[in-house]
Amino acid sequence: QLQLAESGGGLVQSGGSLRLSCEGSGFSLDYYAIGWFRQAPGEEREGVAFISSDDSESYADSVKGRFTISRDRDKNTVYLQMNSLKPEDTAVYYCNRWLGGPLDSWGQGTQVIVSS
After folding, report:
1. What pLDDT digit, counting tens, does each position of 18-38 carry?
2. In the chain, where do the E strands start and end?
3. Which of 20, 81, 83, 88 sits CB 3.0–4.6 Å from 8 for a disulfide?
4. Cα-Cα-Cα-Cα dihedral sign, residues 3, 64, 112, 73
5. For 29, how many CA atoms within 13 A lie in the half-sphere containing its CB?
């Protein structure tokens, strides 16, 4: 069964850091662009960071310089390192394969709460 599982969220103070993980099972992430997305209460889901199959990275302006996306091919996992977190980063974070649009059904995501 093809599946992506997000983990690593939690409660952190403003200025703190978290690392989110997106682990693939049933298939290799190597051949896909992977995106991290987030959805805050009452807001639409937005793309935060993307990593291509050849490891090119791109970021939303709101997180540029603070977040870093990376992949570990041995662990079949894509990470989102989030530093200098702000209260406005509070959201449920999701990952998905990306090909001009999300390829998979959205999972449960992982909740990030940043307190001021």
Report:
1. 999 999 999 999 999 999 999
2. 3-7, 10-13, 18-25, 33-39, 46-51, 57-59, 67-72, 77-82, 91-98, 110-115
3. 20
4. positive
5. 30
